[in-house]
Amino acid sequence: MALDLKISKLVNFLDLHFDQWDMDKYLELSRFIFNNYKQAVTLIDDFTKELDAYHLSFPDQAMDFKTWVTKELAYLESIASEPARNALAVDYVEALEKLNTYQQQFDSFGTDKFLTYLPSSFTPDSGLSVAASQSTKQAQAAWHAVERRLQIQINIVEDLETCLDISERWTPGYSDYRETLEYSQRWKFIRVVEDLEGLVVQRLFELSKANLSSTSTNLIQISRAIVKRSGAICTALDKYNKLAVVQNPQRPTLQYSEILSYAALGEFDILKHSRHDILTKPWSNTMHRQMGVKYFKILRACEEITRLNVETRRLHAWIDAEDSDIKHVATELELTNPPLASEIWRLYHRQRRVNDVHHVRLNRIYSLEGFTSCVPSDVTATDDSLDSVDEVSVEMIEDELEGDEAARFDLCIQQMSL
Prior knowledge:
Blueprint (H helix, E strand, L loop, with lengths): L1 H56 L7 H14 L5 H25 L21 H35 L10 H38 L3 H29 L11 H4 L5 H9 L2 H4 L6 H51 L1 H30 L16 H4 L3 H27 L1
Helix pairs in contact: 1-10, 1-11, 1-13, 3-4, 3-5, 5-6, 5-8, 10-11, 11-13
């Protein structure tokens, strides 16, 4: 019996909690719509002015941001993966360079050195040139080691020639050799950029954790990681700058403060894969890309306004219908069930106060300069009855609602303590 009573009290408490949660969310509906509408209108107004001014700076260039995005996506997809034959060709050229190194080491060894003995060598304390003998053994061991490495490398080269169907071994004079060597050097540069990108992204995540961290221990550990990561970024940046100047075409060198602003992966992709023709494309220009971001934010804001227009009409229709329906039911019950009618009237007045708040905010939405939908026939943007309710009145209504709920909560706690 006691357990059932505790469960009943708990259920009542949960019901009160979620009932209050629903009422709070319902009260914030119009505020959410108004804030989003105002933000979207402001964004469209500000970014449109910036784009118009930017268009005037490039009167001879068509700012077709949608086409630029399509072309950029097509290009990035085309270089997303390395063809298998290209990878094998890179391995083949690297194997040829190793083979050339081993061959030079092997050729550097001359003929075997023979020991020379004189009659004076055969004395009790001569040692029969022990030092010369040991030196010869070491040279022979080194020669055999180089020979083994050379033979292994020859086998690797022959296997790659079989995979690539190469009948005649490439030499530095071959055009395929030179092109593959250049391709290999470019991919070494790309790997350096990828390492730099990974370090920057990790640092951004660590900074984000530092902002969210609530304990001093975690903060100290994250701070140490940030310092360590910053040093690694500087090292990777030095490698990048050394390789950037020898690329064809030459890539721009970067500063530490500049690389930390590369928040989008596309920035690194353009940096890695840009060739001479790509660098001349408008979508690879940093300022064009920033304007493109603002252009698409304008498009998303217009979509947001379209959605908010629908939600505004829905909320307005709901609060009008709710007031009318509750009032109609309460009026009918006054003759048949006065106690229930009294409760319904209490509910009506409470909901009416909430809906009055919604009416005020909806009227402000209708009064926004960038409002694009039609104002309902029963309300105008200059309705005096709505304009007379200022923000102070709205706050007073909200305080009354909070007071009612506080009284309900106090009553619930008293019942649970019995």
